[in-house]
Specification:
- Helix 1 (about 5-15) runs antiparallel to helix 2 (about 15-25) and helix 4 packs antiparallel against helix 7.
- This protein has an eight-stranded mixed sheet, with helices on both faces.
- It has helices at about 5-15, 15-25, 30-50, 60-65, 70-75, 125-140, 160-170, 170-185, 200-210, 230, 250-265, 290-305, and strands at about 90-95, 100-105, 115-120, 145-150, 190-195, 215-220, 240-245, 270-275.
- It folds into two domains: about 5-50, no CATH class; about 60-305, Rossmann fold, CATH 3.40.50.1820.
- By secondary structure, it is of the alpha/beta class.
- A hairpin with a 5-residue loop joins strand 1 and strand 2.
- The chain is globular and about 80 Å long.
- Helix content is about 45%, strand content about 15%.
- The protein has twelve helices and eight strands.
């Protein structure tokens, strides 16, 4: 009966596998065959529990990406920038985990239920992100802009700091912050989301979390959602901007995202540029002004249509 502890261990990972294994061993007389069955189930269960970069939860995917040495090297320190005459203010709100969330909030000049959630790159809600929020307020007009702080006030100024903050972010906390922001903007809010790099992935996650309140989603070179059943719950289409020279959110990842969205019955519009990762970030020394302006024009037209 020495195989019983192994069955118990496997059952803690996968109850169905444990039941199947128990039935098989009961009907197997040979000790050698029982050991073989145990080995097959044990290694199969462990491999099923080991997440790949694109099947793990969002923060685990981002953690693995952040700890990639090539990913770190691809991000040079951001060019220093200090925003003057900002139009918004930092606000705080309660989150479901009993803590407090933060966001840079820019109010529309006229009362409106339209809200754009802006998601940071791995640097945090720095002055570049605040400038983007201010710009979208001017360009969209009838929209409140909410740049959500997933780092709880921390801002990275070096790739090493950004790596640390991105790898430390947990799904539970990020989801709680987003849920708190959704409550903060009100029950009648019509929400669109936009984000870059790490924030591109969270733009899509926020669109999923916001459910029926979601009216649009913009993703700049962010990690896609791989769970097709989750993608089926999207309440809007998605527009995405990607670099064909991106070694991380690479063309293969983008093609897989297109296939998954198609299987989920959701519309995804992809715009590819002959550019590297983070090509649209002006703080990136590899910033491509031409491509960034083209992508911005397309994103702006998309958002204006969603907020009509």
């Amino acid at each position: 009966m020495s195989w019983l502890p192994a069955i118990f261990l496997i059952s803690t990972f996968n109850p169905d596998a444990g039941i199947a294994l128990f039935c098989l061993t009961l009907n197997t007389k040979s000790p050698a065959m029982k050991n073989l069955i145990l080995l097959i189930f044990f290694y199969g269960t462990l491999s099923a529990q080991t997440p790949s970069c694109c099947s793990a939860p969002m923060t685990e995917q981002n953690r693995m990406l952040a700890m990639n040495s090539d990913f770190l090297k691809s991000h040079l320190p951001p060019t220093p920038f200090f925003l003057q005459n900002s139009q918004g203010n930092m606000v705080s709100f309660k989150t479901p985990d009993g803590k407090t969330g933060r966001a840079y909030y820019v109010k529309s000049d006229q009362p409106t239920d339209n809200v754009l959630f802006v998601f940071q790159e791995w640097w945090g809600v720095n002055d570049y992100i605040k400038q983007v929020a201010d710009k979208y307020k001017e360009e969209l007009g009838n929209v409140n802009i909410c740049a959500i702080d997933l780092y709880d006030g921390k801002i990275a100024t070096t790739p090493e700091e950004a790596q640390k903050y991105m790898s430390e972010l947990k799904d539970d906390r990020a989801n709680a912050i987003i849920q708190g922001a959704i409550e903060y903007v009100g029950s009648k809010a019509k929400i669109a989301t936009i984000g870059w790099c790490m924030g591109g992935g969270w733009s899509l996650q926020a669109a999923l979390i916001a459910g029926k309140k979601t009216v649009g989603c913009v993703v700049y070179y962010g990690m896609p959602e791989k769970n097709i059943e989750r993608l089926k719950t999207l309440n809007s289409d998605v527009i995405g901007f990607f670099g064909t020279q991106d070694k991380f959110i690479n063309p293969e990842v983008v093609k897989a995202f297109e296939k998954d969205m198609n299987k989920a019955g959701k519309k995804l519009t992809v715009h590819n540029y002959d550019a590297v990762h983070a090509f649209a970030n002006p703080s990136n020394p590899r910033f491509n002004k031409e491509y960034a302006e083209d992508a911005h024009a397309k994103a702006l037209a998309y958002l204006k249509a969603k907020f009509k």
